[in-house]
Amino acid sequence: MRFRPSRDIRVERLADMTLVFHRLSGETHILSPEAEAILHAVPMGGADGPAVVETLSVDFDIVSADSPGPDETILARLQELADLGILQRCP
Amino acid sequence: MTDMNERTNENERAAERASEDGKVESRRRVLKLGALAVPAVATLSPNMAMATYGGGNGGGSPPVGGAGVSLMACTVPMPEFIDEKGFPVDRREVVRKSNGRYYRKNEKDKWLLVYSGPAEGSYSGQQIKDALTSWSPPPGVGQQEFQAHVEYLTKVRYQQVNGAGLTCLISLTSNLDAYRA
Fold first, then answer.
1. Of B17, B24, B51, B108, which sits with the fewest C-beta atoms within 10 Å of its C-beta?
2. Main-chain dihedrals φ then ψ at residue B44, nearest 5 degrees
3. Is residue A91 included in any domain, yes or no?
4. Which positions in chain A touch B24 (Cβ < 8 Å)?
């Protein structure tokens, strides 16, 4: 499964928060720092879960609170962002 | 002397490596991934804003309490005439035939039935949801007429035609899709 940022979003920083406005739904999403990092690690051309993990690994030491581990957690976060329309699933 | 120079060079190289390592170390940050059970995103729905301010529903309705209620207080303005495919029709294109029904010609010169929009000029989100989930049109609206209305609402929802009420229709997407499936 590959993901890319939706073309219908606008990302704005407000103080220490990252807000994403989704044009079609009219919804505004407040991203946690981890969601923000994951979103920024997804290139416009699209990437799959392992590629996003690799990108994040370059800039971050990743610590996961869950037992499945960082890879599964990041993949789950990608799905969560896609379900909200912030990311699009792409071929 | 040569040994000393070599040792100095080696020390310098080691210092450079340590310095480079230090630079890499300083660029790295810790990304803490939270528990999966906790969402990483909090969403502010425009319907919540409507619940507070009572605006944005196009009908000047009084403020209502609770996001769940306000979601259905939204309004979708409807065209005066809609053809059977769900496209809005300009009144000047409408022709009344001898069978008493109204038609328009599409771009392929084919006659399409034309229906009126709802008498109120709009549907509330609640009206649309009730009609879609009960599989029966709102009072005073014929079955085929409502079918054309649903085609129009779906086209607006998926931005195949320009129309108002997109935010309202997005909240009704699952109902629209289930009705047309």
1. B108
2. -100, 115
3. no
4. none
Q: Which two tokens stand for residue A67?
A: 């037992």
Number of C-beta neighbours around residue A21 at 10 A: 15
Strands A60-64 and B29-33: parallel
Residue ranges of the domains in chain B? Answer: 74-180
| Closest residue, chain A, to B173 (C-alpha) | A25
Query: Domain range holding A28?
Result: 2-85
One-letter amino acid for residue B43 of the chain: T
**Mutation site for A-interface testing, chosen from B23, B41, B43, B171 by largest number of A Cβ within 10 Å:** B41
More confident of the two residues A59 and A52: A52
Residue A1 above 90 pLDDT? no
Structural domain count, chain A: 1
B146: closest CA of chain A, how far (Å): 25
Residue pointed to by tokens 């979003």: A9
Strands annotated E in A36-83: 47-48, 60-64
pLDDT-wise least confident of A16-20, A48-52, B28-32: B28-32
- CB contacts < 8 Å between A and B, how many? 85
